[in-house]
Design brief:
This protein is α+β, with helices and mostly antiparallel strands. Helix content is 39%, strand content 20%.
Amino acid sequence: MSIVRSVCFLALGVLAISSMCIMIQNHLTVESVNDQENLQPSRHHVLSLGQEDDDVLVFVHISDLHISAFTAKDRYEQLNEFCNINLKAINPGLVIASGDLTDSVTPDNLVVDQFIEEWAMYKALYTICQNVSSVPHWLDLRGNHDNFNINGYNSPNNYYPKFGSQRLHPSGSYMTTIETNNKTKYAFIAVDATLDIGSKRLLNFVGQLDDTRLLKLQELDQAASKLNVNATIWFGHYPSSIILTYGILPGLRHVAAKGIAYLCGHLHTFSGLIPHMYSNHHSGMLELELADWKHNRMYRVAVIDQGLFSFADIQHKTWPVIVVTNPKPLLTVQPSKEPVELMATSTHIRIFIFSPLPINSCEVKLDEGSWQPCKRSGQKHPLYTAPWQPELYSKGLHVLQVRARDSSGSEMLSKIEFALDDTKPRFPLSARITLMLDFTAMSKVLFAVSIILCTLPFCIIRRLQLRIIRKKRKMTVLRIRTSCIRLWVRKFWVFASINRLLFPFLAYTVYLTFGPWFIAHFVEDRVGVLFVWGTLFDDGLYLPGTTTYFYCAIHVIFFNMLLVIILAHTADVRYQEKILKKGTDSRTMCRKITSCFPISIFLIFHGITCLIFWQSYGYLSMLVNPARSWSLILAFYLWLTAKRLDTPQLTLAVKTWN
């Protein structure tokens, strides 16, 4: 009978793991769109890819500026350089600034708020960019830093409606159309997914889109279709994986499925771990996260060349800037959205080379061939071309290298992979996981798994102990050959047999799932109660949980799991001393002191992490915090209980363990 039950438990475990794998697979992909005709942009009035530049749109994308009135003066100075030098050399038709326009943090990281000085600096910046560099359109929107400590869009503390370039759009999301000539126009749709109530730091990381906002985005998409635009570019601060969609309408990926690209920022390349965070959806739309300006001084130069979208991510002060548009880099090929068939019938390689100084030389190299010169042929844009025979490269993957040098001697080498057949691009797995997995869904899974790992094993052990008592036989672990595993099985077995340790620990773990974590001023003069599943404010407003699941899962892993290891070890030591009569003669003062090290380090570490709440939300979050600050008292009490266990409390372990 026990074998059957073990098989059942194993089957349940396999089922749980399979469910997680299916969820991961579902979030790594999106539902494909069957009506491909609706996905294809208008392809009328497309010219052959030769030497003309009559149908070209150049634009620049910058994200996570983090303009600060207190620190990093060079960051703002280099932004001014960017306006005066880079934009003047590139001469874009528009600039996209996708959030985190200001830093909103004091140098000591203690105060998180909106500072009017930073917003005034931002307005002065884009005013200079538009006036000095003749940028006709500056499209911006808010990021999470621009939404810190804001009690709604109409809050007097929200300075975007006063200083933002697109401040006349109260919904935050809007559409702008750009015409390259009288036959071609493109739509740019901004996605504002900032929280309705912008809390302070720590829990203001994930964006949200409810039905009202999604309906607005659907209306913008329909308006773009009615205008018969050639293509649509979507942009926002948050990657689609970091946006919680709640309601009955489908999410952003479905709404924006007709677009050729979704441009975003926010993740700062995970501190350099994923420098090229690019992926694509099943609809064919690219999702391109841009590295931040704050630390990396990165920006993006994009070109739509006769319907073909290409881009290059560039670090500030890097010249010349090279963007190859024909043949397109393999990672940017979208057969359902672009006239990619033009590459196979083109007559020239097309390269856009930008520099504040004249370009002295330009050369191209295909595969292992020789370097061939290219010349400037563009009249309106710095388009350089070189003749080629695409039929020689019609099969498989090929490499194109471009080498350009300006009059100062600065040289840049650009290398791309391309294919003229149906060769599929291979996006980095780390980037695909980051951009395609639903962060909130995965956080829920992580939280659920951590809770189960902290409760189910001990419930199973306790049930086995009761069965052993009824059958009057002891547990044996002779089949466990590894002494370390056998040792820890005994420790957890002893822990699960002690009511004074097990029941408070299980009660606290279950409480984390349902009970309030803490009360705090999430926004100035506004009190809320945080649960793992959301936040309730004093006026009844409810915000669904997003980052809370991830944070709570991390807490369970580093608090509950570490605590149970310490308690199990301490209880097992008492078991050996009282029952097995081991170590009683060697309990020197030094050993007694060292036995306190684990719990001391544990309490100090978590005490320091509790200060994050005080730093972010004030003293109230420390005083009324059952999940964190009060749990330190519980942890110390349970450790003292384990430290003082006597023979009567170890009776169940004695009766069930051999």
